Sequence to fold (275 residues):
Amino acid sequence: MPDELQIYQSDLTGPELDEALRNIGKVQQSVADAAQSAAAASESAADAAQAAQTAKTYGAIVQQNQPAIQDIADNLAAVQGAAQNAQTAQSAATEADASAQEAEQWAEQAQQIAQGAMGWYADPQALQSAHPTGQAGNWAIVGSTDTIWVWDTDTNAWLDTSQNVNLSDYYTKAQADARFSDAVAYTITVPTTGWTTGSLTWGGTTYTRKCTVTEADATASPTSVTMAYEGGDYDAYCQIGLIDTQAGSVVLWATADPTAECQIRVVEVRNGEKS
Fold:
């Protein structure tokens, strides 16, 4: 036995003391949990301190590079457009390369043409005398025809490249002047009133109207008569046709009763008799 036994006085009753002894384990667990929470809090505090140090470091970096950062901000649009500008430049380079290739092809063709040039000759006989034979691509200028002659490998002869056109079916200038100098042109304002209705044998209604003009304009026997739109309501013009001309008048017909005025230009060509 120990030499001295210490006795503790407690105000707890027996049952209360028993309850306290039964809860000693819970108290110990609570102490352990508190110790663990304290350790976690200490670790969190350390992390916070580390984060604060990191923030301070980056803050210093930002402060040191403030001019560069401001320069980037001022030129943000250019920075963002750099990729697009690079793509545009690449496209332009591609197009330039294609143009260069095309130019090279044209240059080769020009060189071939230049190499095939045989010169200028007064007439075909002079060309044939100077170059009785040739090869594909050879060409020369002949003064008497004012045309280019080429060496034809199918016939092995010089060939004039000019095209001869048969003009026998065309009017000469003198014939055209004589033919159309007898043309008389005049304008008729087509009214919306005075139209006479009629009917077609196959059905439908027609409208006719005689328009008075001067005797110098309209004649009873023109060689040909043409009409064209001159002004006013175009839809009304499209419904009007010309039946014939008489001395001092023109007879018109329409598929509908005109509701708006229009002007038509009439051209008469007569039998060689000037008006």
